[in-house]
């Protein structure tokens, strides 16, 4: 692929490495502007033999198409799927079916409701991440869906109250990258094209689209932050082979993301060597010629600004025929890359108002959903071994979040909320298993906490008392344990107004005031502050239950009763109060015609900011308790044979995912983890790296090991060239520094157990 000299290189000549001389990145010349990068590099299939073979087939297919047929493969039509690519009936090509979403197919029956992305991330378990992608992919395959609209790696979670933070892993790019990579692999091993989204900087819902006030919000992000934070996880998704990428709604450096040539032609298709196709988010296209030339390949859900206009634009030369051919070649290459020409099932998505045959694609996915559900629960408080419960005979249950529903649903397809439910929390809507909007799913059933606990209490020959509605329930004096269930809802299309709500806090305080053994379970779509009651002497245990999907109650009971020893850890910082997130709390509520959101904090979001500013969180990133305890020892760092030259070699071709040497392993770091408690458990050991000039600690590895009591297991972290590099804005390359790097192994980002340094 051609090397394009980007204006970013010119912009950044003012600065060496970081933006030297500037304390405020928004004062760097041309900040907030998006340099032009044209033309779109043609997809070539150079990344691997599989891509090369796919391109050969795609070109042969293209060669048979008429002009009209080519145009048909760049746009959506109304149909049974959420997105329906035009067809070529003459050649028996029936188009491609696109469906939502990242946590389960949204809409049809007989599909599973998986845990949300944030819940999966809380497991810190690569095998679960892969299994999630694989089983979810099997469901898409079973329904004949060609393109699954996930996984999500953006929003990353810059703003604590942003509405869609729960769809993807969380505000750390490393764990987000690992999860995207594993989910893409799993989905595509099942045969479905993964569509990694949203590219890029879709960090708030407020004014994400143009409206009567004016254009959408512009996320203004400097080049270093683009690379080290927001685009980082997409590199993993691309390396894993993602066949599609979705461009986002909002503007990026004042140019709409779906017509942003720097992002699509420059970063994605040149620097990251993307071979597949870019599809617009639904109605995200804001112009015709500009989107085509900036690298958009498919517009959804209809013809948008293309259709007849694209035909005219190609005819009059505003868009080249090569660009049109490239759009179609890229799309068909992904189709062939996944071997979808080889007896892929035809799409069977029906409207719920039409009687149709049953197509059950769930297999035994409930098992892995339950396991991931349990592994994603995070125990944050457990006084005097309150948990696990020891077969209590008198159990009291309180709170709207304990049972499936308390009032009739207004829309049965939008379980747990949706676009239409515009409030920051949902008092009486029942237990929360997933957030709202297009990232929601369609549960075949929901195991509520109440159901699962009741089954367990019955087996223990106990009794239950419950009250889901009162604001001031009265526990019976005989209660051995009082379980209080609350939640924090969030959805696509609006940002949250608070990180807690008074109704729920009062409910906890009310129960705790009367019950000496109060256990709080909190289902939340994003961070939720808990300081109103966390230190209450009667609140003896607290579980962040996340968004666990259809097996919610089972997964919880597995943890509550100790059948599964909790090992989940927080994937975002829980602050003591909303304001501790500072400027990273709210979305920008800019009423101007060209609203701006300057990402002047750079890479300092979540724990990076709390560490820099010395703000003590309530629970830090990476925190979570177990029913046992672990000791850390034997830290060792072994350098591999790979080159530690300052930059990756110049004369190596880019493959999908970027420069291949970025993935060379330079160091192997190992440590020993000993279970010093009395029950078996799993520990997630975390590696934080101190790169000179960067935040004091950044996650660059994690490893989960199961360890029997008194036994020791080894954890290992492989540090790649990219892990150790900083983005050099002048050279436009990842760069190692001849310096000392701090290596810290911890049980969380603040519970640091082992230290060493490595020298490059
Ligand atoms: C950074 O500079 C911009 C533009 O001059 C200004 O609006 C903003 O307030 C500055 N931010 C800080 C934190 O100084
Ligand atoms: C954002 O940055 C631009 C460019 O430096 C500056 O003009 C503007 O005032 C900044 N906006 C805010 C809200 O800081
Ligand atoms: C374009 O796709 C639509 C929808 O599938 C189909 O009805 C139409 O026949 C196709 N047009 C051509 C030229 O093949
Ligand atoms: C399209 O399918 C029909 C029916 O299966 C078959 O007869 C025909 O040969 C196919 N055409 C092409 C171009 O593959
Ligand atoms: C924990 O148990 C010990 C011993 O029974 C007791 O002294 C202590 O008060 C308990 N702590 C709390 C916070 O309940
Ligand atoms: C804790 O619960 C007991 C009832 O068991 C109650 O008497 C006491 O006041 C509660 N403590 C607080 C601080 O509310
Ligand atoms: C933004 O945050 C502040 C607290 O820091 C709060 O007072 C204000 O109401 C918030 N605005 C919105 C729109 O949420
Ligand atoms: C890393 O080192 C450990 C301990 O020597 C070893 O078991 C493991 O295989 C190494 N991993 C790689 C990829 O070299
Ligand atoms: C490494 O840690 C030491 C001690 O905390 C600190 O002074 C130094 O700045 C750190 N170096 C880097 C590169 O983060
Ligand atoms: C662990 O080792 C200690 C000391 O040797 C021993 O007392 C204890 O019983 C062992 N625990 C288990 C669960 O094996
Ligand atoms: C790691 O190094 C820092 C700085 O020297 C020190 O404060 C800390 O105690 C060390 N941690 C461990 C676990 O050794
Ligand atoms: C669909 C539904 O029941 N929505 C309710 C959820 O809870 C809120 C807040 O109490 C109510 O206002 C909604 O009507």
Automatic annotation (TrEMBL):
Record EC number: 3.2.1.21
Main location: secreted
Signal peptide per UniProt: 1-20
Annotated Fibronectin type III-like domain residues: 683-749
Localization, UniProt: Secreted
GO BP annotations, alphabetical order: cellulose catabolic process
Catalysed reaction, written as an equation: Hydrolysis of terminal, non-reducing beta-D-glucosyl residues with release of beta-D-glucose
Pfam families: Fn3-like, Glyco_hydro_3, Glyco_hydro_3_C
Pathway(s) the chain acts in: Glycan metabolism; cellulose degradation
Alphabetized UniProt keyword annotations: Carbohydrate metabolism, Cellulose degradation, Glycoprotein, Glycosidase, Hydrolase, Polysaccharide degradation, Secreted, Signal
Record's keyword annotation contains Ligase: no
The keyword Membrane is assigned to this record: no
Gene Ontology cellular component terms for the protein in this record: extracellular region
Database matches in InterPro entries: Cellulose_deg_GH3, Fn3-like, GH, Glyco_hydro_3_AS, Glyco_hydro_3_C, Glyco_hydro_3_C_sf, Glyco_hydro_3_N, Glyco_hydro_3_N_sf
Enzyme class per UniProt: hydrolase
GO molecular function terms noted in the UniProt entry: beta-glucosidase activity
Coiled coil (UniProt feature): none
Family from the record: Belongs to the glycosyl hydrolase 3 family.
Name assigned to this protein: beta-glucosidase
Species for this entry: Phialocephala subalpina
């Amino acid at each position: 692929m051609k090397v394009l000299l980007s204006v970013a290189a010119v912009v950044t000549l003012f600065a060496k490495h970081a933006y030297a001389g500037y304390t405020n990145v928004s004062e760097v010349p041309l900040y907030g502007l998006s340099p032009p990068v044209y033309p779109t590099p043609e997809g070539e299939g150079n990344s691997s033999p599989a891509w090369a073979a796919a391109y050969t087939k795609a070109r042969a297919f293209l060669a048979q198409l008429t002009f009209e047929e080519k145009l048909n493969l760049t746009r959506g039509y109304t149909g049974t799927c959420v997105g329906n690519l035009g067809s070529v009936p003459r050649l028996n090509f029936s188009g491609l079916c696109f469906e939502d979403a990242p946590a389960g197919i949204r809409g049809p029956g007989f599909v599973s409701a998986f845990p949300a992305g944030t819940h999966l991330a809380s497991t810190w378990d690569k095998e679960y991440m892969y299994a999630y992608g694989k089983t979810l992919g099997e469901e898409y395959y079973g329904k004949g869906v060609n393109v699954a609209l996930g996984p999500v790696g953006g929003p990353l979670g810059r703003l604590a109250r942003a509405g869609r933070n729960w769809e993807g892993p969380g505000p750390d790019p490393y764990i987000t990258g690992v999860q995207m990579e594993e989910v893409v692999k799993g989905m595509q091993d099942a045969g479905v094209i993964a569509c990694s989204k949203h590219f890029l900087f879709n960090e708030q819902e407020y004014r994400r689209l143009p409206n009567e006030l004016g254009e959408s919000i512009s996320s203004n992000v400097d080049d270093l932050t683009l690379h080290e934070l927001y685009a980082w996880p997409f590199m993993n998704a691309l390396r894993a082979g993602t066949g599609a990428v979705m461009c986002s709604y909002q503007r990026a450096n004042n140019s709409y993301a779906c017509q942003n040539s720097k992002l699509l032609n420059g970063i994605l298709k040149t620097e990251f060597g993307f071979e597949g196709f870019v599809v617009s988010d639904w109605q995200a296209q804001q112009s015709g010629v500009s989107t085509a030339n900036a690298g958009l390949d498919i517009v959804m859900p209809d013809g948008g600004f293309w259709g007849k206009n694209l035909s005219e634009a190609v005819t009059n030369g505003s868009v080249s025929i090569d660009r049109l051919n490239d759009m179609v070649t890229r799309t068909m290459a992904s189709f062939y890359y996944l071997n979808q020409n080889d007896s892929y099932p035809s799409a069977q998505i029906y409207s719920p108002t039409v009687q149709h045959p049953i197509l059950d694609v769930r297999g035994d996915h409930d098992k892995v959903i339950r396991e991931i559900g349990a592994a994603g629960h995070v125990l944050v408080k457990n006084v005097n071994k309150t948990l696990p419960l020891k077969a209590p005979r008198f159990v009291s249950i309180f709170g709207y979040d304990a049972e499936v529903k308390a009032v009739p649903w207004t829309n049965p397809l939008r379980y747990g909320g949706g676009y239409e439910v515009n409030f920051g929390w949902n008092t009486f809507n029942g237990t929360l298993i997933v957030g709202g909007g297009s990232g929601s799913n369609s549960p075949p059933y929901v195991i509520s906490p109440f159901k699962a606990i009741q089954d367990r209490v019955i087996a223990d020959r106990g009794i239950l008392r419950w009250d889901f509605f009162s604001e001031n329930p009265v526990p019976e004096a005989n209660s051995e344990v009082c379980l209080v269930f609350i939640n924090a809802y969030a959805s696509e299309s609006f940002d949250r107004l608070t990180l807690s709500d008074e109704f729920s806090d009062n409910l906890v305080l009310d129960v705790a005031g009367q019950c000496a053994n109060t256990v709080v379970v909190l289902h939340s779509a994003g961070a939720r502050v808990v300081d109103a009651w966390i230190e209450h002497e009667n609140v003896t245990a607290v579980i962040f239950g996340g968004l666990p999907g259809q097996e919610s109650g089972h997964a919880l009971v597995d943890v509550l009763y100790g059948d599964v020893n909790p090992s989940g850890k927080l994937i975002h910082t829980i602050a003591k109060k909303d304001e501790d997130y500072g400027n990273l709390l709210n979305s920008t509520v800019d009423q101007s015609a060209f609203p701006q959101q300057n990402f002047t904090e750079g890479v300092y979001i979540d724990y990076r900011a709390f560490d820099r500013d010395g703000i003590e969180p309530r629970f830090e990133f990476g925190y979570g308790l177990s029913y046992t305890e672990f000791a850390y020892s034997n830290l060792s760092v072994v350098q591999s044979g790979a080159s530690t030259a300052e930059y990756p070699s110049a004369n190596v071709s880019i493959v999908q995912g970027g420069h291949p040497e970025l993935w060379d392993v330079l160091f192997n770091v190992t440590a020993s983890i000993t279970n010093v408690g009395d029950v078996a458990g799993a520990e997630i050991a975390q590696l934080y790296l101190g790169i000179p000039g960067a935040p004091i600690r950044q996650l660059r590895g994690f490893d989960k090991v199961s360890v029997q009591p008194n036994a020791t297991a080894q954890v290992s972290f492989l540090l790649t060239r990219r892990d150790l590099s900083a983005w050099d804005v002048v050279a436009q390359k990842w760069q190692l520094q001849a310096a000392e790097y701090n290596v810290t192994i911890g049980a969380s980002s603040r519970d640091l157990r082992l230290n060493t340094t490595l020298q490059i």
